[in-house]
Amino acid sequence: MINHQELSLDETFHSGLSITKLWCEARIDKDAPTKTLRPPELSPHNDIRDYNVGIFRKKEEIKRLNLIRTTLFENQELTLSDIHGKILVFYPELSLNDGLMCIASGGFIDENDCPPWATWFYYSLGTDDGSILYCWIPEAFIGIVNNAIDVDPYSCLRWL
Question: Does residue 124 belong to any structural domain of this protein?
Fold first, then answer.
């Protein structure tokens, strides 16, 4: 099982989280939760849930997303202290891909139980439940993610 406290020492975790917070906060559209955090410029090249995609490629995918966010981020007026939300962990191997969480979240969580790709900031192995995708969920969307978590029979989505 991964020790989430060890992440506090990981610079990649912190830098990814920081730029993801800034990126998401600058682009929130509360009226379009299904589209707001799935911009085409961040569309993943690899399916994070695919068992045939190795850990290296999955970590590279997250690194690519963080680099794109860093390159494209324009709103320098935001500061991290102004941004509120929660870290969500997604365990792809526990996902049923049944669409229940998609319905419960109004499409914010997709039909394969995956959070929007603009929220992804870190990927790791090392738990009894398989790999972990870490996501930043802005405060505006915590309620709809809670709706998804409420119907998740295998706890593939959890708050950190």
Answer: yes
